[in-house]
Amino acid sequence: MPADLDLCYLPATEALAKFRRRELSPVELMEATLARAEEVEPVVNAFTWQFAEEAMAEAREAEGRYLGRGPAPGPLAGLPVAIKEEMAVEGQPWTSASLILADKVATHTAPLAQRAIDAGGIVHARTTQPEFACAGFTHSRLFGVTRNPWNPAFDVGGSSGGSAASLAAGTAALAGGSDIGGSIRIPASCCGVVGFKPPYGRVPEEPPYNLDHYCHEGPLARTVADCALFENVVAGPHPNDVASLRDEVYIPPDLGDVRGWKIALSVDLDGWTVDPAVEANTRAVAAVLRDAEATVEEVAIGWDRAAISEAVSIHYAAIFGSSVAALLPEHRERMTPYAVRFGEQFGELPPGSVLRGLELEGEIYGRLGALLAEYRLLLCPTTAIPALPAGHQEADLRPDAWGMAAYPTWDHLMTVPFNVCSRCPVLSVPSGFSPDGVPTGVQLVGRTYTDADPFHAAAAIEARLPWLDAAERRPRIEGAGVAA
User: Fold this and answer.
1) Which residue from 110, 175, 356, 483 puts its CA 20 to 30 A from 204's CA?
2) Which domains does the chain have, with CATH numbers?
């Protein structure tokens, strides 16, 4: 039988409330989720691995807890939670989407995944990513091409592409991702869901990337409230992460009041060439916030885009790029062309450049910090274009595609400056669609460590510009065997 789409798209917060009232069983939700995955995965390909039997057993256990058998249910008990493949889950494959690691199995569990499991979340599937999570799109030699549920001709963004695609396709209630250059926010934008880059140190990570201030792990969800729910579960100090923040911040359930707020608007971040649909949808969101009685003013930040590119190149060369470059001498032939290019481009750190990079980062944040001293949030597009073609090769993209410059697969990412400004919380929410039917998104950038502020503005947007809440606002996945 076709999956029950009302269950598959039921917000996590509503599912939990129904579990508590005994109006819905975790078993029913998991059955619907697994049935939906069976229908759409041949088209979307958001999952690397699925654990249906184990998930059903855990759903039955969660059902018992809601019926009063055993310990009280945790805050995510009974929800299907998809976890990005690069995060370790003990006993499950841990390949980073690379042929080099195709046989690797994790012997431990990463903090975000462990907190989801401890809260009762059921890891029913692992999600696709590009090799070593080093691209803003999602295809690999190991797992193939992940396609956009809204239009399979297009990509899902990356690197947490499978996580966002699973949410849009109705095959997970919540999903975990990571973000070192926009890898939560890019796919959230491309797939029409919500993705949060927490401030650096808010969500614990594993060494050594817990010490990389560009690197963040965080939640993706279909609704703002669901994203807040997941963030509250995974955030907080951890004994194995020296960078994790000791203070704990709780995002309240009562969100959406932005009356009297001053919000800055930048459509191009002082230098990006933005697709007309992206610009129009961003301005439409600004109008929605004005309807919510916020003051929205268009501003110039004062950024030098070349300085941002230089700072990012130095930083990647210092840590991320060098780790990929180290594999090239032995494994080049087994690696994807984009991973090879990443290692070559960011594999060498010139002497003295670390100091130069830190100076640039200080200047970049200084401009943003001055702006946010006057405005409570910055509103801007998440990406300059809606999405890239699915499974594209870099050589297939014209250098002038979408008016971009020499490196089109990176050039459209308006997320990267906020990895430089890593202590700012950033939430990406849907803003509309392109003429091709692919979603677009906007970023809500808060002052440092003001985690709840972007959620307040996002809830105000969602209340007036809803997404995925009704059948007519969900993707119709052609070729999946059902009228989705």
Assistant:
1) 356
2) 5-473 (3.90.1300.10)
